[in-house]
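Minutes, methods subgroup
Present: GH (chair), OT, SY

1. OT presented the first of two proteins processed in the latest run. Sequence and structure tokens recorded below as shown on screen.
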Amino acid sequence: MACITLSRNFTHLIVGGGTAGLALAARLSKHTELNIGVLEAGPAAWDNPGINVPGKFGETLEGELDWQFETVLQQQLGEKKQGEANGGGVQRDGERERRNGRSLKWPRGKVLGGSSALNFMTWNRGCRGDYDAWATLLGETVRDGGREGWSWKGIK
């Protein structure tokens, strides 16, 4: 593990340079009295074609930019049997059924931009209730779109 010495003092250090960490850093940096730092485990892969070229779909998965996590065994999925696309794995043991389960790959980005850098340039907007709850939590008035723009209407 490398040891890095920082030559600046930060008032706030955000761990994780994924979408949420970078959005938080951008918001906090609007306060000029704060000195914001972002710490990311992976590289800044500005010119990586696997991230920037849509036709390279999937090339970054299971590579150096992916943490290569897997889920714990999911008993509801059963075991994946040869020739089965989505598993099954129910074994009969007398009168009972027994499911052995299997794990799934769970790609997570180890790169500046986080998992969003691996998501093949796709975007899904969250649900209205989540955005409005964040706005309320931050003291915004949801009805008027929120002062800071965290509500559903405020992020348009």
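2. SY then presented the second protein from the same run.
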Amino acid sequence: MEDLHRQAQKEVMPDETRKVLPPTPDRVEEALLALLREFTSGYIVVDALDEFTDQKLVLRFLRKAAESKTTRVLITSRKEADIERSLRRMASECIDLQNSEVDADIRRYIEHKVEADDIENRLCRRPPWVRKAIRDALSSKANGMFRWVVCQLEVLQDCDHELDIIEALASLPETLDQIYARILLRIPDRHRRTTLRVLQWLIHSKLPLSVDELAEILVADPSMQPPFDARRRLFDPEDVLRHCGSFVRCDYSMASTFYWESCRKVRIAHHSIQEFLLSKRVFGSDYADFTLEEPAANLSIARTCLTYLMQLQHTPLPWNGTRIDLPLWIKPRTDLPLMTYAVHF
């Protein structure tokens, strides 16, 4: 919101006005609407409206924007009663994606993922009858859920022989919750705590982390002795994601905050995963050790950052002759990848 506010202010407000207006939601809305009026035609695309924390605020802005004859608005969302009622009042057209065309797209997606000749795709090297059985089973049970198919294909990648495949296809979970529970239960005991910490950071950190930053949380672990030990640093930072499976994705993004540069960021792969991990359904289950309540997660992250910051006492400060040049010193460091995050957050 702050980034949008600054960009809109830069376009439509004089310098002296920008200095005194903090980015409140009303002022963000005012600035964006003013920005839209500067164009002869404008387009707003909102993906996954159901994942916004303040849907009423976003809908209010979209209703005002849609009143303009020069602005077109495209919104996607899962079916939720409140959102559906609001959209039907303002939308000129609604398209239901739960139809035969979506099922056909899913079949094409399954065909591609099973048959693609890729070095990382083990399914394409399975016998033809196995590939057909996978295509038929997933296509018939997907019920319009792309996410369900993605998770099932990942599980099937790990099947090493005929009996594995038969058992996996015979016991396909029917819901996303069942899939996510199965993924958690398959994590080996010795890696469960590490995976828990990774998921805590991915859900509750202030900004998305790079692979190198995320891997560095293993080096700083307040519950271990010593709390900071560089010998716990992974040979390959990518291994920090090894047991997270389809829970995470990596993408390239350019963050606008002061010190991040263009790099691969790690994110929770789908909003339904975060909903599941934060829900009360995890309590009392066989995977209750993956409870990710916000207070406990924030405490764990804070303790990790403090442990990391304690390394400052072992690091010489950059003395330029008259002062300690701290702003330069806290720029990204290859030897301590998580330091910049720990300093600022």
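Chair's summary of item 2: Confidence is low (pLDDT under 50) at residues 254-262, 323-331.
Next meeting: continue with the remaining queue.
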